[in-house]
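Why Glycerol operon regulatory protein? Reviewers of the renewal asked for a concrete example.
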Amino acid sequence: MPIIQSVERALKILDLFNEQEPELRITEISERMHLNKSTVHSLLRTLQEYGYIERNTENGKYKLGLKLFERGNFVTYNLDTRTIARKYLLDLSLKTGHTLHLVILEGKEAVYIDKVEGKSGNVEGSRIGRRATLHSSGVGKVLFAFRTEEEMNQILDGYIFEKRTTNTLTNKEDFLEEIAKIKKQGYAIDKEENEPGISCIAFPIYSYTNKVIAAFSISMPTPQLNDEQLNRIIPIMEQTAEQISKEMGYRS
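Here is what the prediction returned.
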């Protein structure tokens, strides 16, 4: 796969800055990159436009922008969520025998950041890094349900309700009706809405900001999702959600 030269150059510019040299002049960047100043200036302007580079107006030097701090915190935060949640998900998988997933919201999609395989091992379609639609998955519905009204409207703007199975909700009205139900009961159920033969129960995870930052789910073959299973699993999942959220700093 070919490397895009302009992207490579921009990333190399970011790598020039360190603790010893937090600020650099354009001439210094030009010399170290072996590029003419006009090319470097164009690259810097683009990076500056998106917040990855800032210019010190007092001395004319360039430095790393706050966007990198923001992105870095995002990555670290998700890693912390995964680390904290994992022991609880492992315990929950042992108690139930089912497969567990940990998911975060990224844009208008849910992204799997961890998976604990259940002893039954019958959920093969999921993997870490996979994306899921918000309207068809239990975790996606949970991540959407506990956003602010403004955030919901932003997500729904241009959102496509792709039909994944015969059970998928395929319009905004039905989806919002389901979301209202989820907000009231505190969890979501996906009955073969995302994948034929597989059903899920999903709960939210809160952070110290009292906002939902992730969701986790139990997945199982649909025939196993009966009233007896729901009555047994939901209280255990609710307790797990409280434990993880509490360790993330959440105070109800």
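DSSP finds eight helices and nine strands in the chain. This is the kind of structural detail the renewal will allow us to pursue systematically.
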